[in-house]
Amino acid sequence: MIPPMQYLRMLTNSLIAGALVGAYVALLVLQLNPMVQLGSMPVARLILTWVAFYGVHAAAFFYGLIVLRQLFAVEVHPPGWLSLRLLAAFGTMAVCMSAVVTWLNLDGFRTVLGPDAAARMTNGALVESLCAILCVSLALLQTRLRHGRPIVAAVFGIVLVASLAGPLYLRGAGEPIPPQRTPVAVQLVPAQSSSRVYMILLDGASLEVIAPNTAGGRSAWRPKRRRVCSNTAGRAMCASCAT
User: Fold this and answer.
1) Contact (CB, 8 A) for 226 and 198
2) What is the mean pLDDT of the chain?
3) In terms of pTM, does the model score above 0.85?
4) DSSP, res 232
5) pLDDT tens digit string along 55-108?
6) Does residue 133 sit in the same domain as residue 230?
7) Which residue in 6, 34, 156, 218 has its CB near the most CB atoms, within 10 A?
C-alpha cells in the first residue's frame, strides 16, 4: 500500500513538470505574437493564465504517468519531493516537445511573422533544440551515476532555465506598434472645361407623335430657340430633364 505522503511527493513533481510545460506554451504564444509588449500588467496576467491553464492539464498527465509507473513497477521506489529521476524524464519530454512544436509553427507561420520576427524565432528554436539535446544527455547520465547527482541536477536546472530565458531574450520585449494613420479627406477639385451640354426639350410632344414622324423622315417639331441650362436659370427644367 502506498503511504499518503508519497502521493504528495508525486503531486509536487507533477506540478513542477506541468508548470514547465505551461511556460513553454506561453513562450510559444509570445513568439508567434511579436507585437505583444512584455512590460504591461495585462500581458503578465495573460501569461500567468496560459501557464496555469496548460500547466494544470500537463500536471494531471504527468501525475497519471507516475501512478501507472507505480502500478506496473516490480519494485516501488517512492519519489522524493524533488525527484531528479522524475523531473529529468518529464523535463526532457517537455523541452523536446517544445522544440518540435516551435519548429512546426515556425514553418507554418514564417510568412505571417515577417523576416525579423521569423529570424528571432528561428534563433530561439535553435536554443531550445540545443537545450533539448543537453537534457537528453543529462537524463541518460543521471541514470548511471551513483555519486555527483546534485551536480547533475543543478546543471539540468540551468539548462531548463536557459531553454526558456534564451528564446525569450532573443524575442525581445516586443515590436513597437506603428502609429495609427490619420485619414486625410480627399478634396475633389472640379476640372476646368469649356465644353457645354445642350439639352433638346420637346414641349408637349409624346413618343406616339415623335416615333411615326421620325420613321417617315419628318420632324414633328422645329426648334425655335436654344437655352443653356444653368444652376441659376431654368432650375425646374434641369430637374425635369435629370429625372
Assistant:
1) yes
2) 78
3) no
4) S
5) 899 999 988 888 887 777 666 666 777 777 888 888 999 999 999 999 999 988
6) no
7) 156
